[in-house]
């Protein structure tokens, strides 16, 4: 019987990636159109994908086998699904409140579309999302299914070869729309770093395989997305020390990611409709949006995400 794995040692570099990526995406949605310096914040998404490739593998015990796949999937569902569902409920509630205050027209919920949200299948259609960040959750869930099956095949000295082969296939089998196939190379870079960090491969071998995978990532997505992935890799490799502020934003990163557009962007847009369009008032809107987004994310983390995180940890691989 596999032994229960202990919680992985805290990795400060992971905090930096989570903090930078989540804040970057939030700043992009809150003011990216008005402030050119923020227009690349959306690339935080690809930093998250590289991080998932590394940290999801890192959290799995070395003696994982396919019979433990249900527990792995259960842990991930409990970790992300309740916060996701409640964040959707927040979207619907705010839609109702804004309509009631005559701040926006009421949009009747499309229940079939919302069911697609919850089943993570909207990525395979042209369905619209009620929150612009939700498309990435479908990608993540596809990755979890992949990991549940592929971990025993990749967690060895031949893993780098398998990652390269899968990356090549991802280019030729790339489906239309946002899905794991097209984005796989950035996940592969994170997995490759995991293989190096656990001594399944050498640094030289990891770098040699990273080159063609990086090129395929460029072909699939472009140089900006690929560069964002490499920025995450560089952060993983740097000897960074724990920082309380970074740690705070890392802790609330998922909650901030889920709720900033629903709360902060809506607030900024509503203020913009009723305040003078001067630089000072635009700065006020932006600053207010940031502060409210962070405060709401912290409350969401304490009330929703943290209990789910604790519950998911109660499922062990023993």
Automatic annotation (TrEMBL):
Where the record annotates domain Acyltransferase, the positions are 13-301
Q: Which Pfam families match?
A: Acyl_transf_3
This protein's UniProt keywords: Membrane, Transmembrane, Transmembrane helix
Question: GO MF annotations for this entry?
Answer: acyltransferase activity, transferring groups other than amino-acyl groups
Q: Which InterPro entries match?
A: Acyl_transf_3_dom (IPR002656), Acyltransferase_3 (IPR050879)
Any one GO cellular component localisation term in the record: membrane
Q: Name one GO biological process term.
A: polysaccharide biosynthetic process
Q: Which residues cross the membrane?
A: 40-61, 82-104, 133-151, 180-196, 203-224, 230-258, 279-304
Query: Key word tRNA-binding present in the record?
Result: no
Q: What is this protein called?
A: Acyltransferase 3 domain-containing protein
**Which source organism?**
Mucilaginibacter pedocola
